[in-house]
Description:
Elements: H1 2-28, H2 34-41, H3 44-54, H4 69-81, H5 86-95, H6 97-102, H7 114-126, H8 130-143, E1 152-161, E2 174-175, H9 184-190, E3 207-211, E4 214-225, E5 231-238, H10 247-251, H11 256-259, E6 263-265, H12 272-280, E7 285-287, H13 299-309, H14 313-326, E8 330-331, H15 336-363
Parallel strand pairs: 1-6, 1-8, 2-3, 6-7
Antiparallel strand pairs: 1-4, 3-4, 4-5
Helix pairs in contact: 2-15, 3-8, 4-5, 4-7, 4-15, 5-7, 8-15
Protein name: Transposase DDE domain
Function: Involved in the transposition of the insertion sequence IS5.
Family: Belongs to the transposase 11 family.
Amino acid sequence: MIISYICFMKRTKTLSAMSFSAYDVERRTRKGSFYAQVDTIIDWNPISAIIDKHYQKGLSASGEKLYDGLLLFKMLLIGMWNNLSDVKVEGHVNDSLSAMKFCGMQLEDSVPSYSVLSRFRTELTEKKAFDSLLSEINCQLEKYGILINKGTKVDASITQSSFHSKKPKTFEIVQDRKEDELSEEEIEKQEHFFKEVAEYGVDKEARWLKKGTKTYFGYKKQIAVDSNGLVLAVHTTATNQHDSKGLIPLLQKLDNERIKKGVFTDKGYASKANREYLKGRKCKDKIQHKAQRNKPLSKWERVFNKLISKTRWVVERTFGSQKRWFGVGQTRLKGLDKVHTQHILEAIAYNLKRSPKMEIHLAF
């Protein structure tokens, strides 16, 4: 009887401690935070379902318990919002009650290690799952009227990689923004202006690019945004690929309803193939016109280009805000697919960061 009573008291104390910890987390985060605001506008169930299709729960090969996929996805977002490495994300969730609550954890729960987080990202990257997550989140934002169908703006930015050769070597490097001087045939050849880097530790899928007097090694992020600057789709290439080659793969990720009111781009995207693609999808062509050798722009084309240039601030603001908030423009990852995952997470993090304020604005 005495032993039974002691066991009963131990169980009672354990249950009381657990309920108190849950209450304490709730009490100390009751005033709300950015994480709580995101929770109010996003239904995580469809997102969890997408993750579960690609992320196998149970035990890893080493016998280690695998964590819930939605928990790990939220940790990746926390890392992006706070510009943290995987190692620092683990510490942040341990130290922040609001982050812990956002992840659906209690004080007594163990936070996944950085290695678990890295393996999760790699597994979903290999299965091409992150584009679907961006699409699902955007569908939910559209229901709130946060995404607007008033034309799609497209532009590109560079993500630099530190995994380049440390030894002095000679490279043939692509010169960026020479479209006024190059024909489409010359642009096609330009993609081969590099030497394969065969050195341990070097990212073999990244490439060199020259902009003005500066050279960059890494990848190019092409994004399509709506009229509010929220990211609709992302396409990633090596830096040496000309912008015009990335437009069709980018737009293939969007339905006709999203682009039918026009695709607005600078002259770097001007090509016969791109214009024919837009025509085939019955989309308004808002690509700036490009001058050719011995073929200057007409007066009407110059006026048209000036009108299109006035819309560029939307996508430029998106790039600027991402850099200011998340420190984008650099990558700790190696390989095209992994860097594309980073670009997708940047897009999701950006859309979710702006959405709570936009929802409040729309409500009034």
